Amino acid sequence: MSSASEVLCIAGISIRIRYADESLRCPLSETASRFAITSSADADVTVTIDAMPDALPPPGRLLFDSGGVWRAFEDGGGLRIDCSSDLGGDVPYKVAFFDRDLREGRILMRRDVVTDEMHALDYPLDEVMVAHLLGRGRGVELHGCGIIDRDGRGQLFVGQSGAGKTTTAQVWLSEGDYEIVSDDRVIVRFVDGEWRMFGTPWHGEAKLSSPVSAPLGAIHLLVQASRTELVSLPPAQAAATLFGCTFPPFYDAGAVAFTLECLDRIVRDLPVRALRFLPDRSVIDCIRSAA
């Protein structure tokens, strides 16, 4: 096994990547490379990349089927993730095995399908891994656009696909050189006594993604409307709306329970309001006036 390794750090969660088979090493994607770090410290999880054997053991009980891209199975107390594509036919092109504690993993890749541009942690595996790690008490991933304002505070705009996240990011960028941590997926964690938002590699249409983080000032639930205004919400309604924009492994009861608990804390600690908005600079004026 090669002694050289890569380390990714996403929202303060470190993933060390080692290669049992050097022929399977390939460059990180341009976006993922922004999250690469140099570290000799212990990682939160270490994964070893190796070639897939001719035959795999049969999977355990099916936990989740994404509808063609990946499936999750029980694996002797641990977790197995099968990733599939049209190129691979009926056999997954990569299969990941993790222990019960998600501290160690193996990713097996098919030589006949893998290309020089297919990193072992490419989507969906990186996001699935982080979702499981967050669900173990670390935080929540939200469908949102994260912007750092000029006071260094994070403003998080949350909504489903089509709600206006990318549009919101473009409005802020058109008015100044603001840091956008992501225009589609943002992680929120309670770190050192404060809520912080973190960028992720999983961007939206604008391809905006950054590894930076910031103290979270407020969360805004996007609603397109004929005028721009912030509307207060009862905590229970705010938490329920946020839950509809999260990505926990829903087949893991413990992860779902933690996510609900985390959202309950967030809506009680931070302003979480509906942002009824027009896609223009009135959004910026509205947020600044509420700060």
Assign the CATH architecture of the largest domain.
Answer: Alpha-Beta Complex
Series of H and E elements: EEHEEEEEEEHEEHEEEEEHHEH
Cα distance, first to last residue?
53 Å
Give the strand order, joined by hyphens, for the main sheet: 3-1-2-4-9-8-7-6-5
Helix-residue proportion? 10-25%
Q: Gyration radius, to the nearest Å? A: 20 Å
Secondary structural class:
alpha+beta
Based on Cα principal axes, name the global outline. Answer: globular
Instruction: Count the domains.
Output: 2
> The CATH topology of the largest domain is what?
Phosphoenolpyruvate Carboxykinase, domain 3
Q: State which percent range the strand residues make up.
A: 35-45%
- Poorly predicted runs: none
Summarize the structure.
The strands form two sheets. A nine-stranded mixed β-sheet has the order 3-1-2-4-9-8-7-6-5, covered by helices on one side. It folds into two domains: 5-135, no CATH class; 140-290, Phosphoenolpyruvate Carboxykinase, domain 3 (Alpha-Beta Complex). With 291 residues, it is an alpha+beta fold.
Report what the structure shows.
- The protein is an alpha+beta fold and 291 residues long.
- It folds into two domains: 5-135, no CATH class; 140-290, Phosphoenolpyruvate Carboxykinase, domain 3 (Alpha-Beta Complex), CATH 3.90.228.20.
- 21% of the residues lie in helices and 35% in strands.
- The chain has six helices and 17 strands.
- The chain has helices at residues 30-33, 125-135, 165-174, 235-243, 253-269, 282-290, and strands at residues 5-10, 13-19, 36-37, 45-51, 62-65, 70-75, 78-83, 94-98, 104-109, 140-148, 154-158, 179-182, 185-191, 194-199, 213-224, 229-232, 272-277.
- It has a nine-stranded mixed beta sheet, covered by helices on one side. It has a five-stranded mixed barrel with strand order 10-11-15-14-13, surrounded by four helices.
- The radius of gyration is 20 Å and the shape is globular.
- The mean pLDDT is 93.
